[in-house]
Amino acid sequence: MKIDNRLIAFINGQDFSSGEKFVNDEKYSETPRTEILKNICAGKDIIHLGCLDHVELIELKIKKNIWLHQLLIDSAKSCIGIDNNEAGVLHVQNQLKIKDIFFADIIKEPMKEIKSRNWDYIILGEILEHTDNPVLFLKKIKEFYKDYIDKIIITVPNILNYDAFRYLKGNCEFNNTDHRYWFTGYTLLKVINQANLTPLNIRYCNRIPLTNFQLAKRKFRKVILGKASVYPFPFFSTLMIECKL
């Protein structure tokens, strides 16, 4: 999605429409969310908020080299993890011997481990949809840490994807039962604006599984025509936005 002057005018409330259409004609690659984040954070000083994921799956994900926090540790210059699951933090500290993992609620009060130095990024992976008030949550992060953190990267579920459409055809709603919200590119940008963050770029990642016909068509394009696999945004389940804090 291109963050141009027209889009910014609607996000800022300078213009209004009760039914505006935003055409997203960009194409996106198959690079997974974890790889994108690992590449962005290479050689950087980062904070990974909500770092644990599902505790019972951490060791399996480490073996498969897909646990995001370990990938960020390996890629970044320095990396601390923060989570509000105290039992999970203790497990990772004591059983897996992973350092620099902290149990904390970073918007309850300023966290000294963050304020002790400067950071390039704070990563919020799949967190906003679990919060009761995402605008207030982001505002608090900016209020407490804007002098210590340069940028924030947020990932959330993209409702405008073909998997969701398939469930709709079956007259079903398919949800994580702890989610409060679904996001589109536009609604995520609206939340970012209300939180007084400055959006730098927005992209789509985590390609959904393709049908056999779609796979055959892509293989033909790649092998016969020599064209790289690129996809429009409904092929992806995740939105990623980078902002200036």
In short:
The protein has 245 residues and is α/β, with parallel strands linked by helices. Helix content is 35%, strand content 20%.
Descriptive report:
This protein has a seven-stranded mixed beta sheet with strand order 3-2-1-4-5-7-6, sandwiched between helices. It is of the alpha/beta class and 245 residues long. It has helices at 5-12, 33-41, 58-63, 68-75, 86-94, 112-115, 134-145, 162-169, 185-194, 212-223, and strands at 45-49, 78-83, 101-103, 119-125, 149-157, 198-207, 236-244.
| Main beta sheet | 7 strands, mixed
Strand order of the largest sheet: 3-2-1-4-5-7-6
Query: Strand content of the residues, in percent?
Result: 15-25%
What is the CA-based Rg, rounded?
19 Å
Integer average pLDDT = 92
The chain-level structural class is: alpha/beta
What is the element string, with H for helices and E for strands? HHEHHEHEHEHEHHEHE
End-to-end separation in angstroms reads 20 Å
Helix content: 25-40%
Topology:
Elements: H1 5-12, H2 33-41, E1 45-49, H3 58-63, H4 68-75, E2 78-83, H5 86-94, E3 101-103, H6 112-115, E4 119-125, H7 134-145, E5 149-157, H8 162-169, H9 185-194, E6 198-207, H10 212-223, E7 236-244
Parallel strand pairs: 1-2, 1-4, 2-3, 4-5
Antiparallel strand pairs: 5-7, 6-7
Helix pairs in contact: 2-4
Main traits of this protein?
35% helix; 7-stranded mixed β-sheet; 245 residues; globular; alpha/beta
